[in-house]
Specification:
506 residues, alpha/beta, Rossmann fold, five-stranded parallel β-sheet, four-stranded antiparallel β-sheet, 9% strand, globular
């Protein structure tokens, strides 16, 4: 009996702690459900916010002021001149073509057989005029319009960019010091400027980098004696071939004119300066873009030496002055006030994208500091070529859009090449290019200073020979795949003097 009473008391005691008021349990369950739903909605909202942020970043104000009633151009040829901020322009073309899924005219290596004149058979996938349509062409070449016209459609928009020959020579000296004999022999740029004839031999390979480089890139005889008749004839030929000539020193204004000429959105021409050069000074290190004039001591110039370089590059100096005047005539037709407004908008967009995309406040950094080895810029010459680091934590869409803006030229070309030619299938047999004479390729008969009326091509030349060189001076030679003699399987092989061995260029 006693045992039954104790058991009953225990059941009553436990009952006191088993349950509370029913409303309390219901409230607790509701609270838990709300917390779980809030957490779930938060995850969905964050993902949506990232997508909206990417859309806003690259769409809000990205179209820019109205372009009126025009149709975007999809056939574009850019003559990529040397040391003129042309790598930045090429990045713009790469981005637009990739976004629109356009077909690029790409070289077998990284240049179209430069410094030999352009030949249509240098284009990967080219099988004859009008067999395949190409939309964008922009890698380095020595211009040869008749051959370019075999590749590009008749409605192609041709444009290029120039730079003050003194600043161009400074940059060329820094970049090509090791490959141009005229530069290599000189103690410094000032030493070269004082007496360029002492170091310059027109017969030596790569010395074209040391004199009238713009004139050379346009396919003209850069060693011709200066005359008013010659320069006027060259200027007229360039004006007939190109619809727009940009000026590196006025890059933002150039981008506004280009965007309107091509009828492209504003964000298409917003860019970060690629191939910026590091400059060392007593106070530390800094950086300058290609249009900047500050130079390290080995490249410092006096005013007298600058004038001597203008005289040495007289053909380029004439081109620069002539097209600088016509550039500002074009700005006047566009409207100075209108131009100022669009430049402000372009720079604002650049600053916004730089803050969103880049570390270090948008400033370029040394290649060794870039964690992603796939976006480190190629190094050459006396100064370090800088690149960019992406901001951490970017969502995938934003990261890809930012990555396109900073991807170096070589890596971008490789990416486009791999997408356009996913498999290296043997190409159909094609007619071989014309034979290359020893004194220079595809030279016309007659005096080297004469141009065919209204036509741009290669005039004169040095001892270029038949050996092909890629953009960085590496040798290009024919190599048979699968160790057979079938010409269909030939590819170009790069040789960097044994430092990196050989590999097939696809």
């Amino acid at each position: 009996m006693v045992f039954k009473r104790r058991a009953r008391r225990m059941r009553l005691g436990l009952g006191c702690y088993r349950v509370g008021p029913t409303w309390l349990w219901k409230a607790l369950l509701v609270f838990v459900a709300i917390a779980f739903a809030g957490q779930l909605l938060g995850v969905i909202y964050n993902k949506s916010l990232q997508q909206d942020r990417s859309w806003w970043l690259f769409s809000s104000d990205g179209q820019g002021p109205s372009l009126g009633f025009c149709r975007p151009r999809s056939h574009v040829m850019f003559l990529k001149t040397h040391k003129t901020a042309s790598s930045t322009v090429l990045n713009i073309l790469y981005r637009y073509g990739e976004e629109k899924d356009l077909r690029f005219a790409l070289p077998l290596g990284y240049q179209f057989g430069y410094p030999l004149p352009f030949n249509a058979h240098r284009v990967k996938g080219y099988r004859g005029p009008r067999v395949a349509e190409f939309s964008i062409m922009g890698n380095h070449m020595r211009f040869n319009k008749p051959e370019v016209e075999k590749v590009m459609p008749a409605d192609t928009f041709y444009f290029s960019i120039l730079r003050d020959p003194v600043a161009l020579t400074e940059s060329s000296y820094a970049y090509y010091k090791a490959v141009a004999p005229a530069f290599r022999k000189a103690k410094g740029l000032g030493d070269f400027a004082d007496n360029p004839q002492k170091y310059y031999d027109p017969r030596l390979r790569n010395n074209h980098y040391a004199r009238n480089l713009l004139w050379f890139d346009f396919g003209l005889d850069h060693n011709a004696n200066f005359s008013t008749t010659l320069t006027q004839r060259g200027e007229v030929a360039i004006r007939r071939a190109f619809k727009l000539i940009l000026v590196s020193e006025h890059f933002d204004e150039s981008m506004v004119l280009l965007r309107h000429a091509l009828c492209w959105p504003l964000d298409t021409v917003v860019s970060f300066s690629l191939n910026a050069r590091q400059q060392k000074s007593n106070g530390g290190s800094s950086w300058v873009d290609k249009a900047a004039a500050a130079q390290p001591p080995a490249m410092a110039l006096t005013d007298n030496q600058r004038q001597k370089l203008r005289e040495w590059n007289a053909l380029d100096w004439h081109l620069y002055q002539a097209f600088n005047r016509s550039f500002w005539d074009e700005v006047d037709r566009f409207g100075r006030a209108r131009m100022d407004q669009e430049v402000v908008l372009l720079r604002t967009r650049r600053e916004l994208l730089a803050k969103a995309c880049l570390r270090e406040g948008g400033r370029p950094v040394e290649a060794s500091r870039i964690r992603d080895k796939n976006i480190r810029p190629f190094q050459s010459g006396l100064v370090k070529i800088l690149g960019y680091e992406l901001q951490p934590g970017l969502d995938n869409a934003t990261r890809q859009a930012c990555l396109r803006m900073i991807r170096p030229e070589i890596q971008y070309k490789d990416l486009l090449d791999a997408r356009q030619f996913p498999r290296a299938a043997p190409q159909p047999a094609q007619a071989p290019p014309p034979a290359i004479p020893a004194g220079g390729a595809y030279m016309r008969k007659g005096p080297s200073s004469q141009l065919r009326k209204g036509e741009l091509g290669v005039e004169g030349g040095g001892r270029m020979g038949e050996e092909e060189r890629d953009w960085d001076g590496s040798r290009l030679s024919r190599s048979n795949n699968n160790n057979n003699n079938n010409n269909n399987n030939q590819t170009l092989v790069r040789d960097r003097g044994g430092r990196e061995g050989k590999r097939n260029i696809r």
